[in-house]
Design goal:
The chain is 59% helix and 7% strand. By secondary structure, the protein is α/β, with parallel strands linked by helices. The protein folds into three domains: 76 residues, no CATH class; 201 residues, Rossmann fold; 252 residues, no CATH class. The strands form two sheets. Strands 3-2-4-1-5-6-7 form a seven-stranded mixed beta sheet, with helices on both faces. Helix 8 links the parallel strand 6 and strand 7.
Length: 552
């Protein structure tokens, strides 16, 4: 924006930079709206930004004024009268192609400006370089006067040239003929579309010498009526005759006053920016966009989790935890039987260890496939999220938000698979109390085994009728018997107690796994749905704020 700001300071004074700010705001809106609003409208706005930026960087000491009109309106005669030069005498004739003739008062910077306007060198005339002694029009210093081709010419190239230069000039003087001033061609093609530019327009009703004096006021009033219908009420209407010079001095003074004020360029740029910004704002809207509601996010995560088979995985975590806990804490004599049961997580290929976090082909095949009902729920949740966010927006933005919300859904299956398989379900870590119970169980088994062997030894002594060693007792019960029966009973009882505890532990593990899985699924929803929607919301805010700056 620095170059635009420097140009604006040269153009409208050191204390004002509103032109550059408005152009910069429009540029921001154009960049953010590209691909979202109508391409033709955005191209028009981008053209305004480009033209305004270029004009601000060129001469601020010159005002470009174009004479435009139909065939026979007397533009060239008026051009000669205003310049005070016989252009044919210096070898410059009205071009028969689509080129424009330009005359500049004050050469410094005018050449670059005329080059930007696209006027060929051979059709450029510098008023200060002419060999004349007249200095009566020194008040026109800084004027670049253009004589445009006839807008109703049969040459298509002439139409193209007029349309191009009408967009580039700082001020327009429409030279009309008394016989054709009501022609719909000029009103519908040029005057009505430029209603927002009336501050940089003049109308010259030429050939007024052909109209009887008593009819002139009525004709001027009729022309003003037509201009008012075009939205150009208040545009000055001057009567001129290039043939006898009537009204030429008044037209020259009107142009000179605009040139001296150096406001035409600024007014034209502001009119261009305002016109296209208003069109964009009409299409864009200025409402405050909605936020992605937390409830909708939760609903979306729930739909994605269901589609990813999270409930199935959570149940598998609970069952696997119970199986593994019973192997670790159950009575060792019977707990080995649980090894015959398949591990629920291993069946899903989800217990791959810390070194195998990546989803394998087997895991992809083992995870539950998304059903039509689950897919419909996902689509409904995504659509609800997009509709909530765009409820206050205009139709183009509603369409943009909806398109963004589903733009990454083709990656949904892979993303959900990776989220589930890459989540640490917390089943790989063995709780300390499982290990303590395992040690205690084996201690009880060893106690029972020692007691059993002790009793077996006593039985052998009795069978051989040998004197048995003295057996200690506890409150009348032989110690070997207590060791055997107590070890077995305590092991079984401990296993039953741990069975209850492992059930509670399994449910806690399942809840923890569910939270972790849903957090991973939440990251998927954030990446695939919410981020694209929020990107559209950010683009909308950028367009809205840029247009607000352009229209401030």
């Amino acid at each position: 924006m620095t170059a635009l700001l420097d140009g604006a300071k040269k153009l409208v004074g050191l204390g004002s930079s509103d032109v550059a700010v408005k152009v910069d705001g429009l540029q921001q809106a154009v960049e953010s709206a590209r691909g979202r609003l109508d391409d033709a409208l955005i191209d028009d706005a981008a053209g305004v930004v480009e033209r305004a930026g270029a004009r601000l960087r060129l001469s601020a000491d010159h005002t470009v004024v174009a004479l435009a009109g139909a065939t026979g309106s007397g533009k060239s005669s008026t051009f000669n009268a205003l310049t005070g030069l016989d252009l044919a005498a210096v070898g410059v004739r009205r071009p028969t192609t689509s080129w424009t003739t330009a005359c500049a008062w004050g050469a410094d910077g005018a050449g670059e400006l005329m080059d930007w306007l696209g006027v060929p060198k051979r059709h450029q005339v510098s008023r200060d370089s002419m060999l004349d002694s007249s200095r009566g029009d020194s008040d026109l210093q800084g004027l670049v006067l253009l004589d445009l081709p006839d807008h109703d010419s049969t040459e298509v190239a002439h139409h193209v040239e007029v349309d191009r230069l009408v967009k580039l000039t700082d001020m327009l003087v429409w030279v009309l003929d008394p016989q054709k001033y009501a022609d719909a061609a000029i009103h519908d093609r040029y005057l009505k579309p430029l209603a927002s530019h009336k501050e940089v327009m003049l109308v010259a009703l030429n050939h007024i010498d052909t109209v009887p004096a008593e009819r002139r006021p009525a004709m001027v009033a009729d022309l003003e009526r037509l201009l008012k219908a075009d939205g150009l009420a208040g545009v000055p209407v001057l009567t001129t005759s290039a043939r006898d010079g009537e009204g030429i001095a008044e037209l020259k003074r009107a142009i000179a006053s605009r040139v001296a004020a150096k406001k035409a360029t600024r007014a034209r740029l502001l009119a261009d920016v305002t016109s296209v910004a208003e069109r964009m704002q009409f299409v864009n809207g200025s409402a405050k966009p909605g936020d992605v509601a937390r409830a909708r996010k939760s609903e979306l995560v729930g739909a994605f989790a269901d589609a990813a088979g999270v409930p199935t995985v959570v149940r598998a975590v609970e069952k696997a935890t119970k199986v593994r806990a019973r192997r670790a804490t159950g009575w060792p004599v019977t707990s080995w039987l649980s090894k015959l049961k398949p591990d629920p997580l291993r069946r899903l290929h989800l217990d791959l260890g810390a070194e195998h976090k990546q989803l394998t082909a087997g895991a992809r095949a083992s995870l539950p496939q998304i059903s039509q009902v689950q897919r419909a729920r996902v689509d409904t949740a995504v659509r609800g999220l997009a509709d909530d966010a765009s409820t206050e927006l205009t139709r183009p933005w509603v369409a943009a938000v909806r398109q963004a919300s589903v733009s990454r859904l083709p990656d949904l299956n892979d993303a959900l698979d990776k989220a589930v398989s890459g989540t640490d379900l917390g089943v790989g870590r063995t709780p300390i109390w499982w290990r303590l119970v395992r040690v205690l169980q084996w201690a009880l088994i060893l106690t029972a085994l020692v007691g059993g062997l002790w009793l077996a030894g006593l039985a052998v002594f009795g069978y051989l009728r040998m004197p048995a060693p003295e057996t200690p007792d506890y409150q009348g019960f032989p110690l070997p018997t207590l060791m055997l029966l107590g070890g077995v009973a305590a092991g079984i009882l401990l296993g039953l107690v741990c069975r209850v505890l492992t059930g509670l532990s399994a449910r806690a593990k399942a809840r923890s796994a569910d939270r972790r899985l849903r957090a991973a699924i939440g990251e998927v929803t954030e990446r695939l749905v919410i981020e694209p929607i929020e990107a559209e919301m950010a683009a909308y805010r950028s367009v809205r704020d840029g247009l607000a700056a352009a229209l401030k």
